[in-house]
From TrEMBL:
<feature type="domain" description="BTB">
    <location>
        <begin position="6"/>
        <end position="107"/>
    </location>
</feature>
<dbReference type="GO" id="GO:0051260">
    <property type="term" value="P:protein homooligomerization"/>
</dbReference>
<dbReference type="InterPro" id="IPR000210">
    <property type="entry name" value="BTB/POZ_dom"/>
</dbReference>
<protein>
    <recommendedName>
        <fullName>BTB domain-containing protein</fullName>
    </recommendedName>
</protein>
<dbReference type="InterPro" id="IPR011333">
    <property type="entry name" value="SKP1/BTB/POZ_sf"/>
</dbReference>
<dbReference type="Pfam" id="PF02214">
    <property type="entry name" value="BTB_2"/>
</dbReference>
<dbReference type="InterPro" id="IPR003131">
    <property type="entry name" value="T1-type_BTB"/>
</dbReference>
Amino acid sequence: MSNTNTTVTLNVGGVLHTTTTFTLRKYPDSMLGAMMSGKLPTTVDPQGNIFLDRDGNVFRHILNFLRTSALCIPTDFIEMDLLHAEADYYQIEPLVNLLNQHKEHQATKGTCYFLEIIEVRTGSTATMPTNNSRVKTILSGRKDAILSLPPALIGIDVLEKLQYKDPTEHAELELYGSNIRLKVGEALEGRGWHQTASDFSTSSGFDTKSLHNCLIIEHSYRDRWSMTLVDEETFTVDPEHLSVQTEIFTNYDSANDSYEVWG
């Protein structure tokens, strides 16, 4: 074919794509570049379009790369292996290299997990927990992520509470102790977690059931923590849980003259 820039229609596996010879010649050493320069013979369909016996839907991503030199794929794209095979077939080396980099990045990116801590303070002076206010703190997330925290923070009986849950199931756990939300946050940060959000809201109203019709204030804190694990990484149960478990859940069986350890 000549070096002039003209439009051309390709029939790729039954799907028609119209582009320009300039786009197809973007990488002269590729198969498409060789076809446009006349170095490779071409096959045409009954309508005179160049015919390629390849995947017609994925070819749009090949064309987009030729047009932009960038990997333009949807975030939910699931045919990376097929796109890689097509890029290799067309011998577009820059695209093959980019797909390899993308694959390596995805492999190291891993999976992101979350823990959420919600603290609600209610009372006439809700910001002062020692002055006649009530505090309720809830920790929620995957069981295995929760158990990575020590029993001194989340309770010595937490294993008993969560024993029937699959490690990947989500659970909610009420926490107790002064400033426990901040203490858990410090422990999470020390274990490699990152705080991704921290929200605060407040509301107020009068307690009509009270003789003095006093003002009730409610402050809500919501902290969201995240950690990314690569494919083969898992959460490890804090070893203190195992020692506490052995100490608390060891029961003497008088009939068999033996001890039964829960777990």
